[in-house]
Amino acid sequence: MANNISVTILTKNSGAYLFECLSALDAFAEVVIVDTGSTDDTIAIALGFNNVKLYEHPFIGFGPMKNIAVDKSSNDWILSVDSDEVATPELVSEILNLTLDCHIVYVIGRDNHYHRRLIRGCGWDNDRVERLFNRQSTRYDSKQVHEGLIMTSNLKTELLSGKLKHYPYDNASQLLQKMQHYSTLWADEHHGRKQASPFKALLFGVLTFLKSYLLKKGWRYGYEGLLISVSNANGVFYKYIKLYEAEKEHSL
């Protein structure tokens, strides 16, 4: 069992895939979960694993929340996993056999699924995330959404061969819920720092759909590809509209 790496996970109503997620991480001695207000069976599932340490905290943005999980960990080496991700046995074995270097941030590829169907279009392919790092060398930035690790000049990245299976959406309702949540966070974060207009919202939304559906080959995935492409476009449209409305209200 790995005693020098702490796994960190944020949860909120994550019951759908959490058991599968945690089962894949049983080789790690410590899994730190920070829950932001689950009302489903997330807490019960988490408490069923002996290697889990569970904390609760109000949501204050993804970057700050991930740093809270990092700070509550016992080890300097952190493996950050989302609650809808499942580490493959190949990835776990690879990580356990790594000679860890604190000047390296390890990058992991993700296979993204819609309702358990693997999607290699719509911009969901070639997905890579920086997930294994030493907290003495870096930590997450303070972004509310689309957070990332702070990469200083003395750090380099290394891509691992193992992958994460990612299950972000099972239905259209989940796409809408996340689009609503993320577009609001983005608008709040960019208020006063970025200009928006209805024309920009429409233009960027249309361009996003064309890129996702045509250039990124969403058309190859039938209704799922169409749905994801439309959702991507809506997300861009509404984040600019929300920013525009916030700026308009502020100027009154």
Explain what you see.
- Strand 1 (2-11), helix 1 and strand 2 (28-35) form a beta-alpha-beta unit.
- The chain folds into two domains: 2-169, Alpha-Beta Complex (Spore Coat Polysaccharide Biosynthesis Protein SpsA, Chain A), CATH 3.90.550.10; 172-251, no CATH class.
- Helix 5 (172-190) packs parallel to helix 7 (222-251) and helix 6 (198-215) runs antiparallel to helix 7 (222-251).
- The longest helix is centred in the last third of the chain and has 30 residues, at 222-251.
- The protein is built from seven helices and nine strands.
- Strands 1, 2, 3, 4, 5, 6, 7, 8 and 9 form a nine-stranded mixed β-sheet that branches.
- Helix content is 40%, strand content 26%.
- It is globular.
- It is α/β, with parallel strands linked by helices.
Write the layout of secondary structure elements.
Elements: E1 2-11, H1 15-23, E2 28-35, H2 42-47, E3 52-56, H3 62-71, E4 77-80, E5 85-87, H4 89-96, E6 104-114, E7 117-118, E8 127-134, E9 156-169, H5 172-190, H6 198-215, H7 222-251
Parallel strand pairs: 1-2, 1-4, 2-3, 6-9
Antiparallel strand pairs: 4-8, 5-9, 6-7, 6-8
Helix pairs in contact: 5-7, 6-7
What's this, in brief?
40% of the residues lie in helices and 26% in strands.
User: Whole-Å distance between the termini?
Assistant: 59 Å
Tell me the fraction of residues in β-strands, as a range.
25-35%
Q: In terms of structural class, how would the helical and strand content be classed?
A: alpha/beta
Report the CATH superfamily of the largest domain. Spore Coat Polysaccharide Biosynthesis Protein SpsA, Chain A
CATH topology of the largest domain: Spore Coat Polysaccharide Biosynthesis Protein SpsA, Chain A
Apparent shape: globular
Total number of strands: 9
Going by CATH, the architecture of the largest domain would be Alpha-Beta Complex
Number of domains: 2
